Amino acid sequence: ETDPNAGNNSAVTSSVVAPPFTVASNPKAITDVHGGTTNTVSVTLRGAGTMEVRLLGGDAGPIDSIVLAGTDNSSSLTIQVKRGPHGDGFVNIGSIVGSGSLRSINGKALNVTGAGIQLGGSLGTLNVNALHNSSLRVGGQIKLANVRMFTASMIVATQVGSVRIGTIPTTDNGGQEFGVLAGQAKGTVSVTSPRLRWKIATSPDQHLGDFHVKQ
């Protein structure tokens, strides 16, 4: 049928625009969307803050990067995961980056799977589920790092107090891959499975490939 008046025609479409999250000081809860999109969470953190991640579409990497600002030795970041209808309660985060220090990073359901945790200052305590093909690098010292699963990852700091690892998976050639680099020969590395324990030794030239640990 011919339309005698084309001027009154119309069409409607809709879409969702998801800009990076920007959160004020001391966030109490942030709801993140499901995986499949590029997400950067910017957080200005003073004191203690809690980030809530809701897994709406499974557990596949809903957050690419968390960028921290305003942190100091009194700041702590806690990441809580709310299980969605298809998720298993774990969240993958590519990187946590900040120029300052942190008292703690806590996330029992947090898997760091990309560029890793990079802080310009020091870190008191790290409690995460996994460091997977990732790294923990700080400009100062690390007092304690608790990681349930440590897969082909690296920890770098001027001084490390204690690294406690639950499991280091066995590689195809029957070995375990991990590394800890410290500017000062202090601290210990302990693994529950396989049961291992080392004292941290200093790398003379500070290159990762030349770092050694001794039992």
Q: How would you portray this structure in words?
A:
The protein has 215 residues and is mostly beta strands. The chain contains no helices and 16 strands. It has strands spanning 21-23, 40-44, 48-54, 63-69, 76-82, 91-98, 102-119, 123-132, 135-138, 141-151, 154-157, 159-167, 179-182, 188-193, 196-200, 213-214. It has a 16-stranded mixed β-sheet that branches. The protein is elongated.
Q: Which key phrases capture this entry?
A:
single chain, 215 residues, mainly beta, 16-stranded mixed sheet, 0% helix, disordered C terminus
Brief characterization of the structure:
The protein is an all-beta fold. It has no helices and 16 strands.
Architecture blueprint of SSEs:
Elements: E1 21-23, E2 40-44, E3 48-54, E4 63-69, E5 76-82, E6 91-98, E7 102-119, E8 123-132, E9 135-138, E10 141-151, E11 154-157, E12 159-167, E13 179-182, E14 188-193, E15 196-200, E16 213-214
Kindly name the structural category. mainly beta
Secondary-structure element order, N to C: EEEEEEEEEEEEEEEE
Residue ranges: pLDDT <50 for 5 or more in a row?
Answer: 16-26, 204-215
Count of strand segments:
16
Globular, elongated, flat, extended or rod-shaped: what is the shape? elongated
Instruction: Please compute the radius of gyration using only Cα atoms.
Output: 21 Å
For the biggest sheet, the summary is: 16 strands, mixed
Count of runs of 4 or more consecutive helical residues? 0
Helix content: under 10%
This entry's quaternary arrangement is single chain
Distance between the termini: 86 Å
Beta content: over 45%
| Mean pLDDT level | 76
